[in-house]
Amino acid sequence: MSSQSDELDYAGGGLPKETNWWGAFVIGLAGTILVTGIAPVMVTSIGAAAIPSIVIVTLSGWLLCLFLAELSAMMPERTGGSPSYAYPAFKTRWPRVAEHINGFTAWAYWLGWFPVGPLNMILASAYIVDKFKLSTASFTPIHTPIAWWTLIISIVGLLLLFIPSYMGIRFGAVFATVLGLLSMIPLTFLAIAWIFHPSVVTWSNLYRFHQADGTGIFTPLYGHGWLAIYIAFAFLLTWNVIAMEAAACYIGECKDPDRDAKIAMNLEGGYGVFIYTMIP
Rounded to the nearest 5 degrees, what angle is found at the Cα of 155, between the Cα atoms of 136 and 275? Predict the structure, then answer.
């Protein structure tokens, strides 16, 4: 891990340091909770054969967390995740190119995170509409019907989530702690529940890694070769597991960035690997 003498010369964000490793960790759980969106799709579509690719890609997410822990220790005042390190890292070697790298990485980061809020609110609101038997009256703006209740609940939910963002890191960390405990305790229990009732596990499906139709792991599926299928699903998976590095966005607001970066990023990556491996 970088020492104090390894810090780069750069402009900091000047944000107040009002949290610690726990605040960065619980807010970063926004990436880990995405397992609920990708794991069921991969397992039901591919079967146990999806598990090796899930583990491999998830380990790359943990590796990214380790890289960002190093960068955040070298630039403890920077906030905003991986794009915030792009310009200081390249400005001395390639000053003109550094500006374009900074702009592109910031845009790519926005493109990756922008759908998270709307997509998850749409899923949550659709669940609420179905659970409480609300009206499904809809409109069709672009060939896809959208229920009015789904739209209204999504907008209200996003506005409510804006409040902790506006209130700052201290309130946001408390808010994230509550949501993190409410979501991660059930997920963690699901990950280890089989230990209390091992007879429900079909071990032959696991160690043979059969596809959903019972064929081998390297068998063509859905009219495509096995490699094309795994690459296609890995694309979706990567968008989820790399999100574990969200904790790095808040290292610059930690009271002791050098210490907190190591704890938050390692814990985020390790817990992410555990959840993404055990839930499927």
Answer: 90
2 in a domain, yes or no? no
pLDDT in tens, 152-182: 999 999 999 899 888 888 888 888 888 888 8
Establish if 82 belongs to a structural domain.
yes
d(CA 66, CA 163): 31
Which structure tokens are listed for 102? 């900074």
* Axis-axis angle for helices 83-90, 95-113 (nearest 10): 170
Burial class (CB in 10 A: 0-12, 13-18, 19+), 209: middle
Q: Tell me the C-alpha distance between 201 and 194, whole Å.
A: 7
User: Residue 168: inside a domain, yes or no?
Assistant: yes
Domain interval for residue 68 = 17-278
The total number of structural domains in the chain stands at 1
| Tens-place pLDDT, residues 40-68 | 888 888 888 888 888 888 888 888 888 88
Quick check: is 9 in a domain?
A: no
pTM for the predicted model, two decimal places: 0.78
The pLDDT value recorded for residue 205 is: 67
Q: Which residues of 173-204 are buried (b: 16+ CB within 10 A; e: fewer)?
A: bebbbebbeeebeebeeebeeeeeeeeeeeee
